[in-house]
Amino acid sequence: MSKLSDEDYRSIPLNATLALAALVVIIAGMKVGADLLVPLLLAIFIAVVCTSPVQWLHRCGLSMRVSAFLTLMVLLAFISLIGLLVVNSFSTF
What we know:
The chain is mainly α. It has helices at 6-32, 34-59, 64-92.
């Protein structure tokens, strides 16, 4: 087992400081770019969630376009139903 030299001991706080500074820069960048980052991440999430139904419909014999269209229609219907529930709950509030 090797022993740490004096230079290694001095580099540990330096590495920790650099890691903390990098974390602060990343968080600040995410805060500034939140207007762009949130819709982008939401779109990626929806694309990942919709991939499985599209592939399943394609394996069942539908073309890729029809599979994507049907999945999109089901997703829009689901979002519309959630929106309808929210509007109804606000109207009774």
